Structures are given as C-alpha cells and as structure tokens.
C-alpha cells in the first residue's frame, strides 16, 4: 500500500470536507482518492471519515490521526525537494583534455537524463589523478593500461599524407644512409599519452628498430605536436577519431598494439558508482571511439 499517497488523499479530503474538492486539490480522480482513503482506513483498522451526510466529517479517530498524516506528507514533500536539489547539484569530474567540446557537451546532456549533473574538468593524465586524490573533483577518468580499463581507445600513427600501407612500421623511419644530414622523421607523443604503459612501450620499440632517441618525442601540447606534423613528414601518436578531427591520415603501428585505457576513480565509492551507472557508450563516445567492457 502507498501510505504516503493515501495520507495525501486523507489530508486533502479533510481540508476540503469532500472527496470532490480533496481529489481536485491532490490532482487525482475522485475515485482514486476514495480508494486510497479506504485503503488507509483498512490499514489503520478504523474509519477516518463519517460519510453519513453530503459532506465528509472526520471521526474522532480521524482527528487523532490527522496531525501524523500531515507530518508524513510534509516530510515526503521535503524529501522530494531534497532529492531534486541533490540531482541538480554539479558533479565535478576530471576528464581527458583530448575530449572535444561537442562530445563533452553531449555527455553532459545525456548524463542529465540519468539524473547526473556532470561538471567536466578537462585535464592531463597526472593532473586528473591528483585532482581525484585531493578530492578537488568527485570522480576522474584516469589513465590505466588498456587491459585494466573499462574503456579502450586504439592508438596508431597519423601524418599529413596517406601512407598507402595497412600499417606504419617504425623501422621505415630510420635516417637515410645517403643523406645523413637530413632531419629524420619523428613520432610525436601528445601529453595524454605520456604515461608509462604507452610511452615506454613505444620507446622500447624505437630502440628495437634502431631509431635515434630523438625520433620519439613527447610534445608540450597536442597543438605543438600537430603543428610539427602538419609542417613536415613527422607522425603523431593518436586515435583514429583524433586523426580525423585534425585532418590527418591514420594507420595502426606495425608490430605493436597500443591503446589508451580509462577507468573511473573517486574518493567515495558511491560517486564512482554513479559514473559507472551511466551507459558505458556515453563515456566511450566522449573519449573518442572507445570500446568498453
């Protein structure tokens, strides 16, 4: 039985002295108001109204129960107000700085339909982890090895020209023996991928194919790295979606499979669960072509 709904009908009918007026005030049909009051009377074990005349009059039992019913209705209304404020309170979350404005806006809009008012804060990998650790955000999408993450974004190499090959092998970037003075082609790592499980694997591959140390370089920013690629034959380590946004031609890396991994971390378990409670595809779309488990 819906005790709160029955008490609302009871309070409304008592205030108007009729089921017609009380039902209108409670915004329910008269028949529903009658059924709810009758159910409450059965639940409490005594009649609340004397229905012997055209108007309904409280019985002595009804007068005794009315204050409690009013308190219950007021408490229920207050709880609904508190719930509305809680749902609308901004939920600050650190997200990768590579998330574009439009995907972020879509994530915020979609999250609202799931009663989560996201306030995204774009940041780099180290900063996101620190913001979560110091509780400056309620949750963060942190960088983890792809095998440990909820979301996975494939990485490859992109340049301004189409390589016309199914994959790009790093050994093709070795400096020419004919012109040793020519600047060798470089692979630029953007800040989002300057994490051990990505950077170190690419560095080991660089050494394995005998490239120069400077041929795999971490850039200060994505803008800096992209500018270098657009002005030369250099390559950018990025996702397919990023390459498309930047107007670059993307291919996977031959001999190694690299991917970004993302997981949710939060100071409170309930906050992490709120993010995990969103459909995984909403976050995955924001991360740019991510798959998820």
From TrEMBL:
Q: Which Pfam families match?
A: HTH_1
Q: Which residues form the HTH lysR-type domain?
A: 1-59
- InterPro entries recorded: LysR_HTH_N, WH-like_DNA-bd_sf, WH_DNA-bd_sf
Superkingdom classification of source? Bacteria
Taking the record's annotation, the residue ranges forming a coiled coil are: none
Sorted UniProt keywords: DNA-binding, Transcription, Transcription regulation
Q: What family does this chain come from, according to its entry?
A: Belongs to the LysR transcriptional regulatory family.
Q: What is this protein called?
A: LysR family transcriptional regulator
Which species is listed as the source? Answer: Actinophytocola gossypii
